[in-house]
Amino acid sequence: MSSDIKKNEPKKPSLLIALIPIISLVVILYFFVVVFEQDVHIPLIIGSIIAAGVARVALGTKWDELEKGILATINMGMQAVIILMIIGILIGTWIAAGVVPTLIYYGLKMISPGIFLAVSMIICSIVSISTGSSWSTAGTIGVALIGIAYGLGIPAEMAAGAVISGAYFGDKMSPLSDTTNLAPAMAGATLFDHIRHMIYTTGISYVIVFIIFVVLGLRFSGSQLDTQNIQGILDTLSANFKITPLLLIPPLLVIVMVAFRVPAIPGLLGGVILGVLFALILQGVSFEDVMYIGQEGFSIEFENATSAQEMVAELLSSGGLQSMMWTVSLIICALTFGGILEATGMLAVLAESMLKLAKGTGSLVLVTVLSCFFVNLVSADQYLAIVIPGRMFKDAYAERHLAPKNLSRTLEDAGTLTSPLIPWNTCGAFMSQALKVPTLTYAPWALLNIINPIVAVVLAYLGIFQTPMTPEEVAAYEASKHHAVA
Description:
The chain has helices at about 1-10, 15-35, 40-60, 65-95, 100-110, 115-130, 135-150, 155-175, 180-185, 190-220, 225-240, 250-260, 265-280, 285-295, 305-315, 325-345, 345-355, 360-380, 380-400, 405-415, 425-435, 440, 445-460, 470-485. The protein is mostly helical. The protein has a domain at about 75-325. Helix 4 packs antiparallel against helix 16 (about 325-345), helix 6 runs parallel beside helix 8 and helix 7 packs parallel to helix 21. The longest helix is centred in the N-terminal third of the chain and has 35 residues, at about 65-95.
């Protein structure tokens, strides 16, 4: 009887088997995206078919098991999908309400080019810490800052990099953030120990990035402002929207709601309701039009448009539920591929192989960082990039008597921060869609997301800020090992 059960059990994949879907996807993505300049959806579907075929033929995995793995992984990303759709509605209604135009209007009057990048990062950091959400920050304040950048003559990709750097600083440091709670849960650390420990790597990285953005801003501070164009934008905004400080209420209330631990989805829906009310009351938009904008997005056109009017039209023709469907379909395709790799153990085998390279603390942290980035790359989901390496490396850190908060910090340094650098990752796809800047275009300027993982590895090799277990933690771990063996 037991032999029959073993025959029916799927095999554990070898490293070679696990690499087949990965290498295939990389090759397919290259030809579709680089050579043919096509979207990434179909390559991900083809990659999923190859992964399922390998699992079925080489491992004997039944389709029922693959389907369960796919659906379980997609389910992990469904909260992100719902938030994404709500933010699409939020952007459309906030533009119609005049919220985004008002933020752009006041921003153009107050922020000078020389300090724009550094100030943008600080603003997004504060908002993201308050809300615990990089997506909410980028989809609201970030959209307005991109508009201000256009008016100030600052490249949109640099502005997007500053927005994302600030948004992800807040996301990873806020106790309200889901990833900030997930990482210590996977590593066995406590939430506030985890946050305090992140100050070392993230604080150093933040100071470095702030200085770089200040220096980058110097190239714009001496330049002549196109005052005529800026005035044209201001005139266009004031002619088409009622600009008033009252329109600062919706973003402030959303920040307050989430700061008081209102969950992200109802908090953002509250923002949508405020947007609808302000559009009806202050801008005089009909209810029918507001509902249409929530579905299809806001658009504005001008006859014989000036350059300023063209810029406003390009910037404000945005939002709506349907605007996010491209990204939603991309997320589902990507999570399907990641779900197959997770369900068949292929991701685990790849992580185990990388762990063999870890000889000391520095190399262990390096392998963790690379694993997080790798899972972000192939599974397209930051949650999996925290969960899978967290599960794989928890014992490895304990064996070296490193406190769990070292692992939880590294999971965020790499798993959370590298996610928006990948075009087909849920985070990269969202940031590109919300800010209207291609992922690979803004990625070189998302400096915190690049520098933070590097700082984490350097500090680990130097042996700095790597907290050992307490004697009590060591005793508890050794006792758990003996108990498991017994």
